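Batch 3, record 17
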Amino acid sequence: MKNDHQSGSLSFVLAVVAGASMVGCASAPPMRTESSTSGIRAAQEVGAEKVPQAALHLQLAKEELERAKKLGADGDKEQGSSMLLRAQVDAELAVALSRESAERTEAQAAVGRVNQLLQENK
Amino acid sequence: MKMNTLVIGAACAALLSSCAATVPLELTNAREAYRRASNGPAAQVAPAELHVANQALAQAELSFQKNPDSYQTRDLAYVAGRKSELATATASINIQQAKEAQAKNDFQTAQGKIVKDTKEDLNQTRTALTAAEQTGAATSVALAASERSGNLSAQQLAAEKAARIAAEKKASDAQMALAKLGSVKDEPRGMVITLSGSVLFASNQSVLLPEARTRLDQVVAVLLTTRERNLTIEGHTDSQGTDANNLSLSQRRADAVRDYIVAKGYQADLVKATGLGEGRPIADNAGPEGRANNRRVEIVIARDVHASNP
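Prediction for the assembled complex:
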């Protein structure tokens, strides 16, 4: 009778642990790829593919996004999420480098216009 | 300062803890990237981005202290390195934007100066043009005035010349006309027209014959063209008869001619009549032809213009 009682208590504990572990699995944060994806899209929209250095970081961002997705798919969502940070920051850098290139071109053009104006009106 | 202290502290801690652990390549790169960014223009023109990079590097260093070989440390270090590059890129963007803004400002300034200079040049050109036009106009006016003056002078000269020629022709014509009417001689006392007494008067009479009037009309017409000159009408007789009679007859005859000339319009005070009798013969009274020549009336036209007869 006593063994039955002990056996019932053990079953309860196991059930609680199992339930708890199931709850734990269900509450693991899902991998958020939105920031990385939108960052990559933004880099493409500003023409990062046409700027060599920006294109490099855009490519890195894409590869890191794919690696993160694969890690998540393999069950390593934490490492996948960490990898997404890399994808996101490379996409941001691709955008910045594209803008820097465009601003440099516009600044040079503006300076050129000034020089031309001064040259033509010497 | 606070940022640097934090990073240095984290780096020292990492150094101490890394005696046993190898620093991941990502962290080494991140440190170098941050060093470059903080030594570059980002510190001045992109401090916010540099601060973010600093925090990211500190987070990586802390992670390195806890888990030197973990993927978290490598990923955080990777992100920290990229954040430093972002700070550098943002600094470059800000610099290029400032450069572009300065260039645009320079362009506007240069353009404004050019417009201003152009306006000034235009105004100067307009002023010069106006002055040139005024000078030109003044010159034209002066030239026109000069031309007019020259024309006027030329016209005056021409008019004077024409008047002189006309006057000379008039005198010549008058002389020729008088020559047809009687004897005309140019003597020191003036031009002398000699009319035959037999043409003007009947014998021993002082009344002008009709034919004489016609003849005198022609003479008067000529005299009226020089009406401003003094005339002296002289009556002369031959030597027949007494001197007194001849003198009286010559005076009456001179008066008759004078009256007729004045009646025809010659100014009375310019005409004087004088009877000289037989005292100034021009031919021999011995023969009938000589006596006929001596019976005469002479009209002396003074050389000088004006000067009324006394």
